[in-house]
């Protein structure tokens, strides 16, 4: 699997470190809403298809990247610097407490 | 300044080794520069750092990812967004940058004793390096002066093409002896000279 770093160009996946789901938005640190925090920590979309992820080019420029990867085919359809854009909020994210 | 001792000293064996059926393929050496400095620009301050490199080191860096320049005694290249490595044969580069790079522009980190600079030059330099790193070493994809950061397994390396058939590889000092030994083994195939 190749990921095309916006700075370094196409590099092997072994140069990258997976940093987790890119759909998560950290709740307000002052929030005491248990459900919101529970969803942030545990709920994942686990889609069979396009997935927003955060990767770090740890064996290269060390930038954090917002990557869209297809979990079925490993096709990487978009890569950008996480600091610039990041992922748009996913509409498909299920609501807190909703059944899967 | 403290006199630096090369980490390659215990394995340093000058001379020629390997297969010379086509002549010497690569020449391996340690450049042991006096100064290796890392500059990092705060977001949006990249141009100011490039200007500081021009002012202090006299090197004009081209725009774009991995852009760099090299002379006989000095070299500079970008290795990450807003980050640059500047190298000088002489000591004292850190003090000069500390004066010209303001706190609100970016940071200056002295790596002079933290990195080991290994030079690989010769007609087979591209071939030997391609055995270590999964990047394109052709002159069109990796022009003279340009820099790349990549890894050989866990050995992080910053590579600059300082001439058409010459590369300078900057590795962590603690990994340098291991990398050098591997480099010698990989060079046996084409015949190498340590000098």
From TrEMBL, chain A:
Domain of life: Bacteria
GO molecular-function terms, A-Z: sarcosine oxidase activity
One Gene Ontology term from the biological process aspect of the record: tetrahydrofolate metabolic process
Protein name: Sarcosine oxidase subunit delta family protein
Organism: Mesorhizobium zhangyense
Automatic annotation (TrEMBL), chain B:
Biological process annotations from GO: sarcosine catabolic process
SUPFAM superfamilies hit by this protein: Folate-binding domain (SSF103025)
Location of the GCVT N-terminal domain: 93-192
Protein origin, superkingdom: Bacteria
Gene3D superfamilies: Heterotetrameric sarcosine oxidase, Probable tRNA modification gtpase trme, domain 1
GO molecular function: sarcosine oxidase activity
Annotated TM spans: none
Pfam family, one: GCV_T
InterPro entries the UniProt entry points to: GCVT_N (IPR006222), SoxG_het (IPR006280), TrmE/GcvT-like (IPR027266)
NCBIfam families recorded: soxG (TIGR01375)
Name of this chain's protein: Sarcosine oxidase subunit gamma family protein
Native species: Mesorhizobium zhangyense
Taxonomic lineage of the native organism: Bacteria, Pseudomonadati, Pseudomonadota, Alphaproteobacteria, Hyphomicrobiales
């Amino acid at each position: 699997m190749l990921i095309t770093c916006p700075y370094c160009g196409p590099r092997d996946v072994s140069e990258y470190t997976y940093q987790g789901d890119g759909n998560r938005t950290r709740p307000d640190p002052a929030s005491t809403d248990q459900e919101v925090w529970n969803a942030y920590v545990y709920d994942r979309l686990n889609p069979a298809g396009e997935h927003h992820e955060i990767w770090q080019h740890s064996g290269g420029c060390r930038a954090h990247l917002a990557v869209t990867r297809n979990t079925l085919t490993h096709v990487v359809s978009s890569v950008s610097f996480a600091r610039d854009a990041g992922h748009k909020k996913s509409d498909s994210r299920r609501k807190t407490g909703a059944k899967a | 300044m403290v006199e630096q001792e090369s980490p390659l000293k215990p394995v340093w064996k000058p001379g020629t080794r390997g297969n010379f059926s086509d002549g010497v393929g690569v020449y391996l050496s340690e450049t042991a520069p006096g100064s290796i400095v890392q500059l990092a620009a705060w977001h949006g301050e990249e141009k100011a750092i490039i200007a500081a490199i021009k002012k202090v080191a006299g090197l004009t860096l081209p725009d774009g990812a991995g852009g760099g320049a090299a002379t006989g005694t000095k070299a500079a290249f970008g290795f990450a967004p807003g980050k640059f490595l500047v190298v000088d044969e002489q000591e004292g580069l850190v003090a000069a940058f500390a004066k010209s790079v303001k706190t609100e522009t970016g940071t200056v980190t002295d790596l002079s004793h933290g990195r080991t600079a290994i030079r690989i030059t010769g007609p087979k330099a591209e071939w030997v390096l391609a055995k270590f790193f999964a990047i394109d070493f052709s002159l069109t994809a990796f022009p003279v002066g340009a820099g790349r950061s990549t890894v050989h397994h866990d050995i992080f390396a910053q590579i600059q093409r300082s001439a058409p058939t010459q590369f300078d590889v900057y590795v962590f000092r603690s990994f340098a002896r291991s990398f050098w030994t591997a480099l010698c083994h990989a060079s046996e195939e084409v015949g190498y000279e340590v000098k």
